[in-house]
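User: Show me a protein chain along with its predicted structure.
Assistant: Here is one chain, sequence first, then structure tokens.
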Amino acid sequence: MGSKLTAEEVKARLSGFESWTVEEGKWLVKKYRFSSFTGSIAFVNRIADIAEAMNHHPMIAIDYRMVTLRLTSWNAGGLTELDFASVVRYDEAYAGSADDRTP
């Protein structure tokens, strides 16, 4: 899992990712928009597969055509390298959803 990152480490790593924010100092959060409800559900299924493979699961909210992902490492009490590794994979999954996305 790894150890909890400092606020400075989180800020430095976050600068390389588009649209991810930090909430309450312990959550990485991003909203993904899709052109259809089925596109958002297909994306969530891809996220589920990634999360299972990494054994690190996000909080997922589905609001019709918008999917919100929230990540933290419970055992570390905040954000770790595993959260940022997940972010990379989730953004790759979104990039692969080009037909379903909306800007």
